Amino acid sequence: MSYLVCRFIERHFLLIAVILSLAAYLDPALFTWLKPHIALCLGIIMFGMGLTLDFKDFAAAIKNYKAVSIGVALQYTVMPVLAVALSSLFGLPQEAVIGMVVVGACPGGTASNVIAHLAKANVALSVTMTLVSTCLAPILTPAIIFLLLNEQIDIPFLPMVKSVFWIVIFPLVDGLVLRRLFRKKLDPILHVFPSLSIMVIALLIACIIGLNQSMLATFPVLIFVAVALHNLGGLAAGYGMGRITGLSHKDSLTLSIEVGMQNSGLGVALATKYFGVASALPGALFSLWHNISGVVLANRSRSL
Question: What sign does the dihedral 202-29-167-271 (CA atoms) show?
């Protein structure tokens, strides 16, 4: 019975995400209570990933410095440049331009690891790229923002790395260790974790929609289109460059997800702190859109 339920959830998670998102738009309070628990939810998903992986997967990812280097390079070049190009193309107001650039200058987010898991991409490679880009962010993100906007900001290094450790690395390693110690005992329940991840990510998308319901009601069309193209451009650049440089489909798919999905939460926080609430709008829209596009991509990848 549980296997059938899990299979249903896995096959219809896009439909589930849409239904929950509509419910969140109509009644935000149904899901906004999740806001203080977003980090915990991501940690639960990362723990589930750890149970389905092995230490040798990460050994291979670390040795694959070519893919990691390409992914991180694209993250900090294509995404900021694309942000400026799209802002210019659509003639966005200055506040929106700032928000686009800030999001484009951010590292990969933990949501990319979740989508990589759901898309059956190289999760170990995704986590490795997230960790590397995050460690570089306190240097590269302010440098890119200063270069493109001529504005100086300060990103604290240790708090940023600590958050990635507790949300990504710690639960992931816990899962890896438990899998190593209790492999045979855990095998009968491992099929539950993909469907659990799907339900949690669908709830998180609904929470984001609920939190931004009033903003979505105004529907800033040009900014939304620019944000969507920003994300899609990153997804395309990641996959395309992966294939051009000889990476496998699986690793290229991982690059696509990692490059296209930014740490939009960090982008919103930085924009709000240094530039004002209006500049946080692209980051908030990106947070919503990249989860939806990620779910669509994962759904398509799993069906191939």
Answer: positive
Both tokens of residue 1? 């019975």
Q: In this predicted model, what pLDDT tens digit does every residue of 242-279 receive, in sequence order? A: 999 999 999 999 999 999 998 887 888 788 788 877 78
Beta bridge partners of 41: none
* β-bridge partners, 108: 262
**Whole-number Å distance between alpha carbons of 153 and 54:** 39
Q: How far apart are CA 154 and CA 142, in angstroms?
A: 7
Flag whether the pTM goes above 0.85: no
What's the one-letter identity of residue 219? Answer: F
How far is 60 from 58, CA to CA, in rounded Å? 5
Q: In terms of C-beta distances under 8 Å and separation of at least 24 residues, what long-range contacts does 152-160 make, across chains too? A: 153/270, 153/273, 153/274, 155/270, 160/134, 160/266
Q: How far apart are CA 139 and CA 223, in angstroms?
A: 28
Our CA dihedral for 219, 224, 228, 233, rounded to 10 degrees, sits at 170
| pLDDT 10s digits, 65-80 | 899 999 999 999 999 9
Report the alpha-carbon distance of residue 87 to residue 80 in Å, rounded: 11
Asked whether 128 and 58 are in contact (CB, 8 A), the reply is yes
Q: Of 231, 165, 190, 184, nearest to 6 (Cα)?
A: 190
- Structure-block tokens of residue 114: 């979740």
Q: How far is CA 150 from CA 27, 81, 173, 178, 282, in A?
A: 41, 15, 40, 48, 19
At 240, which amino acid appears?
G
